[in-house]
Amino acid sequence: MNYLLELINRMVGNEQLTRMLFAGLIGLSVVLVVVTLAVLVKGLQSPVQRRLMLIKRGHGVDHRAPPSNLQMMLEQVGQRFSSGETRGASATRTLLIHAGYRSPSAVQVYWAIRLLLPLLLMGIALLALPFIPNMSLLLGGGILAVALGVGWLIPAIYVSSRKKSRMSRLLIAFPDALDLMVVCVESGLALPQAIERVAEEMAVSQPDLAMELALVNAEVRAGVPSTEALKHLAERTGLEDIRGLVSLLAQSIRFGTSVGTTLRIYAEEFRDRRTQLAEEKAAKVGTKLVFPLIFCLWPSFFLVAIGPAIISVFKVFGKI
């Protein structure tokens, strides 16, 4: 507390004015926090407001998984800053869909976290500043700026990492799904029924791909054409290989050619591409191992191999 007073006193230059400003800032912060929490809690406790929010989120009929109070509070905070991205396909919504977040309120929650986390980290940094010895104004400002930047970047880095890992899992699992789909189609099942059967078979081993295929089957059952449902699959996954498969299947359905033959040819190409990708990663291992060898293994090797000889040389010259 005394450290914050000293910082404000350096900027203002008047001790009495510093105390008044400090007390005013504390009072204003407390009032804002109390009012914000009161408004949010009151809005969540109001049956009318809660019902309207549930209908707006798409939970007006299905109440099997109602949102928590924390999630609804984050939505209320985030919808003030993401009103332009809640409608249509935005870059943030596409990123979240590729990462596996398909909730209608995912954009609001994402922006709420990106806005509140920097403030939380800055508050923690402010509380930790008095415990750092020899703290200067420049260093304190740098720590606050770092806390603000880390809080702003962590959600984006986490979502991007989740997107990459999910796309990697889908890319690895897709050739196996194509092989199962070929077997189902050639055994007499139509394409929607084959997709449904593959989703059931892969629900345990590859839940991400099974969920995407189940969504395709649900859209077909709802009346969406198969080609449109497959295009939606390519948009949700973000994989160019799936876009190529969708184009081939659309041409097969349009011109009446064999869907099984198309799936078999593309499955072979997909598997060859996956093998080439694995070989490419294996070829890069040697280059990636150079830096660990130089900085980790070679110093230890030289220390063990040359260390005794160097000690003996020092002993000999010490006697001389």
From TrEMBL:
This is Type II secretion system protein GspF domain-containing protein. It is found in: Cell membrane. It is a multi-pass membrane protein. One of its GO terms (cellular component) is plasma membrane. The keyword Cell membrane applies. It comes from Pseudomonas fluorescens. Residues 178-305 form the Type II secretion system protein GspF domain. Keywords: Cell membrane, Membrane, Transmembrane, Transmembrane helix. Its main location: membrane.
